[in-house]
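hey m, so remember when u said the C-alpha coordinates were messed up on ur end? i reran from scratch. heres the input so u can diff it against urs
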Amino acid sequence: MSTSKPGGPPDGLPEPDSDEIRQMFSNRETREAYRFLYERRSGPLPTMGEWVAEAESVLGKANVHTQRRLRDVRDYFIVSTRKVGSDWVYQLEGRKTDAAADAGAKISPRLQAEVFTVKGRFCAMCGRGPADGVRLQIDHIIPRSWGGETTVENLEPLCVAHNHGKQAFFESLNPYADAITRAIKLETPWERIGELLIAMREIGNRVPAELLPIVGLESHKGDPARRLRDLRVVLGWAIRVYKRREGRATVVEYELIEAKPWPPEGPKEAVNRYERERKRRKAAQRCGDDR
Protein backbone atom coordinates (compact mmCIF):
# COMPACT_ATOMS: atom_id res chain seq x y z
CA MET A 1 0.00 0.00 0.00
CA SER A 2 1.13 3.53 -0.63
CA THR A 3 1.60 6.20 1.98
CA SER A 4 0.23 9.68 1.61
CA LYS A 5 2.40 12.58 0.55
CA PRO A 6 2.28 16.03 2.18
CA GLY A 7 -0.41 18.03 0.46
CA GLY A 8 -1.55 15.07 -1.61
CA PRO A 9 -4.67 12.93 -1.40
CA PRO A 10 -5.07 10.74 1.72
CA ASP A 11 -3.93 7.55 -0.03
CA GLY A 12 -0.99 9.17 -1.83
CA LEU A 13 -2.41 8.57 -5.31
CA PRO A 14 -1.96 11.33 -7.90
CA GLU A 15 -4.99 13.22 -9.13
CA PRO A 16 -6.25 12.02 -12.56
CA ASP A 17 -5.61 15.44 -14.18
CA SER A 18 -2.13 15.85 -12.70
CA ASP A 19 1.03 16.27 -14.76
CA GLU A 20 2.34 13.10 -13.14
CA ILE A 21 -0.45 11.02 -14.68
CA ARG A 22 0.03 12.68 -18.08
CA GLN A 23 3.73 11.78 -17.94
CA MET A 24 2.97 8.19 -16.95
CA PHE A 25 0.31 7.54 -19.59
CA SER A 26 0.62 9.13 -23.02
CA ASN A 27 -2.54 7.32 -24.16
CA ARG A 28 -5.71 9.21 -23.24
CA GLU A 29 -7.70 6.00 -22.87
CA THR A 30 -5.28 4.75 -20.22
CA ARG A 31 -5.54 8.08 -18.38
CA GLU A 32 -9.32 7.75 -18.41
CA ALA A 33 -8.98 4.19 -17.13
CA TYR A 34 -6.90 5.50 -14.23
CA ARG A 35 -9.49 8.22 -13.56
CA PHE A 36 -12.25 5.60 -13.54
CA LEU A 37 -10.39 3.40 -11.03
CA TYR A 38 -9.38 6.42 -8.95
CA GLU A 39 -12.95 7.73 -8.64
CA ARG A 40 -14.30 4.28 -7.76
CA ARG A 41 -11.46 3.17 -5.47
CA SER A 42 -13.57 3.54 -2.32
CA GLY A 43 -16.60 1.85 -3.85
CA PRO A 44 -18.69 0.63 -5.36
CA LEU A 45 -15.81 -1.23 -7.01
CA PRO A 46 -16.21 -1.39 -10.79
CA THR A 47 -16.39 -4.36 -13.17
CA MET A 48 -14.74 -4.60 -16.58
CA GLY A 49 -18.16 -4.21 -18.18
CA GLU A 50 -18.69 -0.91 -16.35
CA TRP A 51 -15.32 0.37 -17.56
CA VAL A 52 -16.17 -0.53 -21.17
CA ALA A 53 -19.48 1.35 -20.82
CA GLU A 54 -17.64 4.32 -19.29
CA ALA A 55 -15.12 4.36 -22.14
CA GLU A 56 -17.93 4.37 -24.69
CA SER A 57 -19.58 7.27 -22.87
CA VAL A 58 -16.44 9.40 -22.41
CA LEU A 59 -14.40 8.48 -25.49
CA GLY A 60 -17.15 7.45 -27.88
CA LYS A 61 -15.53 4.08 -28.56
CA ALA A 62 -14.70 0.72 -27.00
CA ASN A 63 -12.98 -2.41 -28.30
CA VAL A 64 -10.63 -5.16 -27.10
CA HIS A 65 -7.94 -2.50 -26.51
CA THR A 66 -10.30 -0.75 -24.09
CA GLN A 67 -10.15 -3.71 -21.71
CA ARG A 68 -6.37 -3.72 -21.92
CA ARG A 69 -6.15 -0.05 -20.93
CA LEU A 70 -7.62 -0.83 -17.53
CA ARG A 71 -4.87 -3.41 -16.99
CA ASP A 72 -2.19 -1.01 -18.31
CA VAL A 73 -2.69 1.06 -15.16
CA ARG A 74 -0.80 -1.76 -13.39
CA ASP A 75 2.46 -0.53 -14.96
CA TYR A 76 2.61 2.06 -12.17
CA PHE A 77 -0.11 1.14 -9.67
CA ILE A 78 -1.37 -1.81 -7.66
CA VAL A 79 -4.75 -2.86 -9.05
CA SER A 80 -6.27 -5.92 -7.39
CA THR A 81 -9.13 -8.07 -8.63
CA ARG A 82 -11.57 -10.20 -6.70
CA LYS A 83 -14.90 -11.84 -7.27
CA VAL A 84 -18.06 -10.22 -5.91
CA GLY A 85 -21.15 -12.25 -6.70
CA SER A 86 -20.85 -13.34 -10.32
CA ASP A 87 -18.55 -10.45 -11.36
CA TRP A 88 -14.86 -9.66 -11.03
CA VAL A 89 -14.21 -6.19 -9.65
CA TYR A 90 -11.11 -3.98 -9.78
CA GLN A 91 -9.66 -1.88 -6.98
CA LEU A 92 -6.93 0.75 -7.22
CA GLU A 93 -4.92 0.23 -4.02
CA GLY A 94 -1.71 2.23 -4.31
CA ARG A 95 1.54 2.83 -6.12
CA LYS A 96 3.99 0.14 -7.19
CA THR A 97 7.26 0.67 -5.36
CA ASP A 98 9.21 -0.60 -8.38
CA ALA A 99 7.11 1.19 -10.99
CA ALA A 100 9.92 3.37 -12.33
CA ALA A 101 12.08 0.35 -13.07
CA ASP A 102 9.22 -1.77 -14.33
CA ALA A 103 7.36 0.73 -16.50
CA GLY A 104 7.77 -0.18 -20.11
CA ALA A 105 9.87 -3.20 -19.12
CA LYS A 106 12.91 -1.92 -20.99
CA ILE A 107 15.10 -4.71 -22.30
CA SER A 108 18.65 -3.56 -21.69
CA PRO A 109 21.43 -4.19 -24.23
CA ARG A 110 23.01 -6.59 -21.73
CA LEU A 111 19.77 -8.59 -21.42
CA GLN A 112 19.34 -8.62 -25.20
CA ALA A 113 22.87 -9.99 -25.56
CA GLU A 114 22.13 -12.67 -22.96
CA VAL A 115 18.95 -13.73 -24.79
CA PHE A 116 20.82 -14.01 -28.11
CA THR A 117 23.63 -15.95 -26.41
CA VAL A 118 21.33 -18.39 -24.63
CA LYS A 119 18.63 -18.80 -27.28
CA GLY A 120 20.53 -18.12 -30.51
CA ARG A 121 20.51 -15.43 -33.17
CA PHE A 122 17.53 -16.77 -35.11
CA CYS A 123 13.75 -16.40 -35.03
CA ALA A 124 12.14 -18.82 -32.57
CA MET A 125 9.25 -19.31 -35.02
CA CYS A 126 10.82 -19.58 -38.49
CA GLY A 127 14.50 -20.17 -37.74
CA ARG A 128 15.74 -17.30 -39.92
CA GLY A 129 18.28 -14.75 -38.77
CA PRO A 130 20.74 -12.03 -39.85
CA ALA A 131 22.49 -14.48 -42.18
CA ASP A 132 19.21 -14.62 -44.13
CA GLY A 133 18.88 -10.83 -44.21
CA VAL A 134 16.26 -10.90 -41.41
CA ARG A 135 16.22 -8.40 -38.55
CA LEU A 136 15.51 -9.85 -35.12
CA GLN A 137 13.64 -8.33 -32.16
CA ILE A 138 13.52 -9.53 -28.55
CA ASP A 139 9.95 -10.31 -27.53
CA HIS A 140 8.18 -11.37 -24.34
CA ILE A 141 6.98 -14.97 -24.66
CA ILE A 142 4.19 -14.25 -22.17
CA PRO A 143 3.10 -10.60 -22.53
CA ARG A 144 3.66 -8.37 -19.54
CA SER A 145 -0.06 -7.54 -19.54
CA TRP A 146 -0.69 -11.24 -18.83
CA GLY A 147 1.81 -11.44 -15.99
CA GLY A 148 4.95 -12.16 -18.02
CA GLU A 149 8.29 -10.93 -16.65
CA THR A 150 11.26 -9.32 -18.37
CA THR A 151 13.65 -12.21 -17.79
CA VAL A 152 15.77 -14.43 -20.04
CA GLU A 153 13.32 -17.28 -19.48
CA ASN A 154 10.41 -15.17 -20.77
CA LEU A 155 12.20 -13.57 -23.73
CA GLU A 156 12.97 -14.91 -27.20
CA PRO A 157 14.24 -13.60 -30.55
CA LEU A 158 11.64 -13.18 -33.28
CA CYS A 159 11.89 -11.81 -36.79
CA VAL A 160 9.96 -8.59 -37.37
CA ALA A 161 7.22 -10.32 -39.37
CA HIS A 162 6.55 -13.01 -36.76
CA ASN A 163 6.82 -10.53 -33.89
CA HIS A 164 4.11 -8.36 -35.46
CA GLY A 165 2.02 -11.42 -36.27
CA LYS A 166 2.29 -12.69 -32.71
CA GLN A 167 1.30 -9.29 -31.32
CA ALA A 168 -1.78 -9.21 -33.54
CA PHE A 169 -2.72 -12.76 -32.49
CA PHE A 170 -2.28 -12.02 -28.79
CA GLU A 171 -4.28 -8.80 -29.13
CA SER A 172 -7.18 -10.94 -30.39
CA LEU A 173 -6.98 -12.92 -27.12
CA ASN A 174 -7.18 -9.85 -24.87
CA PRO A 175 -10.85 -10.54 -23.97
CA TYR A 176 -9.49 -13.56 -22.06
CA ALA A 177 -6.54 -11.72 -20.48
CA ASP A 178 -7.84 -11.82 -16.90
CA ALA A 179 -8.40 -15.58 -17.06
CA ILE A 180 -4.96 -16.10 -18.61
CA THR A 181 -3.30 -13.93 -15.97
CA ARG A 182 -4.93 -15.96 -13.19
CA ALA A 183 -3.72 -19.24 -14.65
CA ILE A 184 -0.34 -18.59 -16.17
CA LYS A 185 1.80 -18.35 -13.03
CA LEU A 186 0.70 -21.63 -11.46
CA GLU A 187 3.32 -24.33 -11.10
CA THR A 188 2.27 -27.17 -13.41
CA PRO A 189 0.56 -27.32 -16.84
CA TRP A 190 -2.35 -29.26 -15.31
CA GLU A 191 -2.94 -26.49 -12.76
CA ARG A 192 -2.55 -23.76 -15.36
CA ILE A 193 -4.99 -25.34 -17.81
CA GLY A 194 -7.34 -26.28 -14.98
CA GLU A 195 -7.39 -22.75 -13.58
CA LEU A 196 -8.02 -21.39 -17.08
CA LEU A 197 -11.06 -23.68 -17.40
CA ILE A 198 -12.31 -22.55 -13.99
CA ALA A 199 -11.78 -18.84 -14.69
CA MET A 200 -13.51 -19.02 -18.06
CA ARG A 201 -16.46 -20.90 -16.62
CA GLU A 202 -16.88 -18.20 -13.98
CA ILE A 203 -17.39 -15.57 -16.68
CA GLY A 204 -19.60 -17.87 -18.77
CA ASN A 205 -17.11 -18.55 -21.58
CA ARG A 206 -15.70 -21.67 -23.16
CA VAL A 207 -11.94 -22.05 -23.62
CA PRO A 208 -10.74 -21.74 -27.24
CA ALA A 209 -8.28 -24.50 -28.08
CA GLU A 210 -5.58 -21.97 -29.04
CA LEU A 211 -5.34 -20.81 -25.41
CA LEU A 212 -4.17 -24.21 -24.15
CA PRO A 213 -0.56 -24.17 -25.45
CA ILE A 214 -0.23 -20.52 -24.39
CA VAL A 215 -1.26 -21.24 -20.80
CA GLY A 216 0.27 -24.72 -20.73
CA LEU A 217 3.67 -23.19 -21.56
CA GLU A 218 4.71 -26.44 -23.21
CA SER A 219 4.54 -25.56 -26.90
CA HIS A 220 7.89 -27.21 -27.63
CA LYS A 221 7.83 -30.18 -25.27
CA GLY A 222 4.30 -30.98 -24.20
CA ASP A 223 0.86 -31.81 -25.49
CA PRO A 224 -2.03 -29.65 -24.18
CA ALA A 225 -4.57 -32.20 -25.45
CA ARG A 226 -2.87 -34.82 -23.31
CA ARG A 227 -3.03 -32.54 -20.27
CA LEU A 228 -6.77 -32.24 -20.85
CA ARG A 229 -7.01 -36.02 -21.08
CA ASP A 230 -5.11 -36.28 -17.77
CA LEU A 231 -7.56 -33.86 -16.15
CA ARG A 232 -10.49 -35.95 -17.37
CA VAL A 233 -9.21 -39.53 -17.11
CA VAL A 234 -6.74 -39.36 -14.23
CA LEU A 235 -8.07 -36.52 -12.07
CA GLY A 236 -11.79 -36.99 -12.77
CA TRP A 237 -12.69 -33.58 -14.18
CA ALA A 238 -15.75 -33.34 -16.43
CA ILE A 239 -14.88 -31.33 -19.56
CA ARG A 240 -17.14 -31.00 -22.60
CA VAL A 241 -15.68 -30.55 -26.09
CA TYR A 242 -17.39 -28.45 -28.77
CA LYS A 243 -16.45 -28.50 -32.45
CA ARG A 244 -17.89 -26.46 -35.30
CA ARG A 245 -16.94 -25.55 -38.83
CA GLU A 246 -16.10 -21.96 -39.76
CA GLY A 247 -15.33 -21.93 -43.46
CA ARG A 248 -12.57 -24.48 -43.99
CA ALA A 249 -11.44 -24.40 -40.36
CA THR A 250 -12.67 -26.44 -37.41
CA VAL A 251 -13.10 -24.40 -34.23
CA VAL A 252 -12.59 -26.36 -31.00
CA GLU A 253 -13.67 -25.12 -27.57
CA TYR A 254 -13.72 -26.66 -24.10
CA GLU A 255 -16.23 -26.16 -21.30
CA LEU A 256 -15.63 -27.16 -17.70
CA ILE A 257 -18.61 -29.03 -16.27
CA GLU A 258 -17.09 -30.11 -12.95
CA ALA A 259 -13.66 -29.67 -11.36
CA LYS A 260 -12.21 -31.95 -8.71
CA PRO A 261 -9.85 -30.97 -5.86
CA TRP A 262 -6.17 -31.36 -6.66
CA PRO A 263 -4.70 -34.58 -5.19
CA PRO A 264 -2.61 -34.09 -2.04
CA GLU A 265 0.58 -35.15 -3.83
CA GLY A 266 -0.11 -32.73 -6.69
CA PRO A 267 -1.30 -33.38 -10.24
CA LYS A 268 2.16 -34.21 -11.65
CA GLU A 269 2.79 -37.07 -9.24
CA ALA A 270 -0.80 -38.32 -9.62
CA VAL A 271 -0.42 -38.47 -13.40
CA ASN A 272 3.02 -40.11 -13.13
CA ARG A 273 1.63 -42.75 -10.78
CA TYR A 274 -1.25 -43.43 -13.16
CA GLU A 275 1.20 -43.87 -16.05
CA ARG A 276 3.42 -46.22 -14.02
CA GLU A 277 0.44 -48.36 -13.10
CA ARG A 278 -0.82 -48.36 -16.69
CA LYS A 279 2.56 -49.52 -17.99
CA ARG A 280 2.75 -52.20 -15.30
CA ARG A 281 -0.70 -53.52 -16.26
CA LYS A 282 0.24 -53.48 -19.94
CA ALA A 283 3.47 -55.37 -19.26
CA ALA A 284 1.62 -57.93 -17.13
CA GLN A 285 -0.91 -58.41 -19.93
CA ARG A 286 1.86 -59.01 -22.47
CA CYS A 287 3.44 -61.59 -20.17
CA GLY A 288 0.06 -63.34 -19.88
CA ASP A 289 -0.40 -63.35 -23.65
CA ASP A 290 3.04 -64.93 -24.19
CA ARG A 291 2.25 -67.94 -22.01
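this time it looks ok to me. The two ends are 71 Å apart (CA to CA). if urs says something different then somethings off w ur setup not the seq
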